[in-house]
Amino acid sequence: MIEFERVSKRFGSWTAVDGVSFTVAEGEFRVLIGPSGSGKSTVLRMVNRLIPADEGAIRIDGEDIASLKPEELRRRMGYVIQSVGLFPHWTVERNIGTVPALLGWPKARIRDRVAELLELLNLDPRRYRSAYPHQLSGGQQQRVGVARALAAEPRILLMDEPFSALDPITRASLQAELSAIHRRTGTTVVFVTHDMDEALRLGDSIAVMDHGRLIQCATPLEILTRP
Ligand code: ADP
Ligand code: ADP
Predict the structure, then answer these.
(1) How far is the CA of 11 from the centre of ligand 2 (A)?
(2) Which residue's CA is the closest to the ligand 2 atom numbered 16?
(3) What is the pTM of this model?
(4) Whether the complex's predicted ipTM surpasses the cut of 0.90
(5) Please, what sign has the CA dihedral across residues 36, 42, 209, 163?
(6) Residue 39 CA: which ligand is closest?
(7) CA-based radius of gyration for the chain
């Protein structure tokens, strides 16, 4: 479903991503792990074309992403980052409904979808749909961030250290919710973290990056049982 073929990215003379190749299968939960600065975020941002690749090919369902229209990228992919980035002057409902509204969904369908997502993420819709971001805790804001990314039913969810800023207990419950959503919807996930515990807990497979290169790809079991 997602294919990287010898993809490289330079910032000036600095090579941030160096000849990276991998594929992510439909429905797979793929973790990208590695130290800070190893190129994980840059890989993720090339998947949704926030950053163009300098070399190599990136394909989604066999199509070169360079040929996809922006609204087509938005429809297929949801994106969650650490600093949630909700619009402070918009309600939870409007924040979550942004992409469906851009895609022209009718109002009633958006309203139903928002309620469904809030339930899915353990936020009572009656209490929170009209709330503003500053009225929510960090964990609740990140739940809204995940709901927003899932709103238009993307087939791919890209997550860049989404839970790193949360306390350990909130973080564990969001990890469990994300696993449940992944199992239930079959959404393909690419999840960036530098935390091996998180990677082992969430990933079907774990790709290890170092200095812009992908140095290993293994299942959690293989990582835990390697001599
Ligand atoms: P984080 O990964 O903590 O969310 P970013 O993704 O914004 O932070 O940045 C990741 C790395 O890329 C950091 O080391 C940051 O310094 C570097 N970086 C991001 N944008 C730029 C830029 N425009 N110029 C130089 N370095 C940058
Ligand atoms: P990671 O997500 O693994 O922390 P990044 O992909 O954010 O790593 O960054 C990889 C390298 O590329 C880092 O050295 C970072 O400083 C650099 N980098 C990332 N984005 C930019 C940018 N926009 N301009 C210049 N350098 C960048």
Answers:
(1) 8
(2) 37
(3) 0.84
(4) no
(5) positive
(6) 2
(7) 18
